[in-house]
Design brief:
Length: about 450
């Protein structure tokens, strides 16, 4: 099946092949496509265990009919364009053209005997038949010359022009006439070809998903009312995670703890489940949703005069207008583009407005969430996310630590003493050293 699917080429650019490249190759490609489609149909239709979605709903006999029509007229495996024996007039032209070499050799011998010089008679498109010699002959009409030969017209070449001059054009014109009729016949099945393309797209997608599931030992997810992933594989870096989400949820944790990564993974897992794919986890459960709406990135634009906060608001506006009770909204750090007071107000307003919708969001307002009145107001689950070496640690609860400003103020006294003791360094070097010291202490506190 994999081999046949690879042979189902993209048919969208075939018109260019016919009019700009090889017309014969146009029919060869269509024939190969139909041949592979026919083999795929036979493989899937003969297997009783194959689901109905993988069986073609149209008349598969049309595929064989189209193949026979092309095979009957086009010389698919030979050197000719049209099959020999199909058209008597074309065969006559081709036979004459094939004998031209001997005919020209005979005429060249006659001229050579008369003029006692070495002469060849050649055919050149547009110019017709010419006598090719290495010296001037005043009695003949000179057509052109190059560094080696002179090319002339004479009585014999004019006689050849009348008899055989259009033979090449006659062959091409007759071949084109036959191919245009065949193409017109194939074009009448355009709707049928679209059905075949849609069918192959479905087979190819499901086949790819099945190969992926088999290769990586994926599991079939169960359909429930909650999200539950056990040892799911992270799509962004080597690790795994487990999480159970049965109501609207806020993810908390320090920067770079994996909150955004977890949101993205949940979204991808849900899309895979919804499209019928198996899941890279030990086990998984998901609800069926009507829409997946996200606000992950802040798309700031100077040219459009849109700040990161306004970009967030526009994305949230879309989520609010499109969401239903059956939707899942994934929102990352709403309100971070403005001051803390306004950001928290916007965050709470949005969470309250979307409380009848499924919402998973990440936020750094963890100190605010610890207040009992806020917990009661939002009525959501809280998770503390922390990135470990080979996994993501996800626990129920709210991450709590000092803010960066409090941390710097708390360490300022010791830091000042450290700076004053470094008298040997220049002021510039001391500034660099102090900044590095602050960063190191911040990192240690976060860890």
């Amino acid at each position: 099946l994999t081999k046949q699917l690879r042979g189902c080429i993209n048919l969208s650019n075939l018109e260019d092949t016919f009019y700009k490249k090889s017309k014969k190759n146009y029919f060869v490609k269509i024939y190969n496509f139909l041949q592979n489609v026919n083999k795929i149909m036979n493989i899937l239709h003969q297997n009783k265990d194959v689901p109905s979605i993988l069986k073609f709903k149209g008349d598969n006999k049309i595929v064989e009919s189209l193949m026979l029509n092309i095979e009957y007229k086009i010389d698919l495996r030979g050197n000719n364009v049209i099959k020999k024996g199909l058209d008597e007039e074309l065969d006559t032209y081709i036979n004459i053209y094939g004998a031209l070499e001997d005919i020209l050799t005979d005429y060249a011998k006659i001229l050579a005997e008369n003029y006692k010089i070495k002469i060849a008679v050649v055919y050149q498109p547009q110019l017709g038949f010419l006598a090719e010699v290495q010296s001037k002959i005043s009695q003949w009409e000179l057509i052109y010359k190059n560094d080696t030969f002179f090319y002339y017209k004479n009585n014999i070449t004019e006689e050849l022009d009348k008899e055989y001059g259009d033979i090449k054009n006659n062959i091409e014109d007759r071949e084109l006439e036959i191919m245009l009729k065949l193409k017109e016949s194939i074009d009448s099945y355009k709707i049928y070809f679209n059905m075949l393309i849609d069918y192959i797209a479905i087979v190819d997608a499901l086949h790819s998903l099945s190969l992926y599931a088999k290769r990586d030992n994926l599991v079939k997810p169960d359909i429930t009312n909650q999200i539950e992933i056990e040892k799911g594989r992270n799509f962004f870096y080597p690790s795994n995670f487990s999480v159970v989400i049965n109501k609207n949820t806020i993810l908390t944790g320090p920067n770079s703890s994996g909150k955004t990564t977890l949101l993205k993974n949940i979204g991808i897992y849900l899309v895979l489940c919804q499209m019928g794919s198996f899941i890279p986890a030990v086990s998984a459960k998901f609800p069926i949703i009507d829409k997946l709406l996200t606000k992950i990135e802040s798309k700031e634009s100077i040219s459009n005069k849109i700040s990161s906060f306004m970009s967030d608001i526009l994305q949230i506006e879309h989520i609010i207008s499109e969401s239903t009770a059956e939707s899942l909204c994934i929102i990352d750090e709403m309100g971070k583009g403005t001051n803390i007071k306004d950001g928290i107000s916007v965050f709470i307003a949005i969470m309250n407005y979307l409380k009848k919708t499924k919402v998973i969001t990440a936020s750094n307002y963890q100190e605010f969430f610890m207040r009992n009145d806020v917990k009661d107001l939002l009525n959501v689950n809280y998770f503390y996310v922390n990135r470990l070496e080979n996994s993501m640690d996800i626990k129920k609860g709210i991450f709590n630590n000092k803010s960066s400003i409090d941390l710097i103020e708390g360490e300022y006294k010791d830091l000042t003493q450290d700076v004053e003791s470094s008298n040997e360094e220049s002021i510039k070097e001391t500034e660099k050293w102090a900044i590095k010291k602050i960063n190191n202490r911040l990192m240690n506190k976060n860890e």
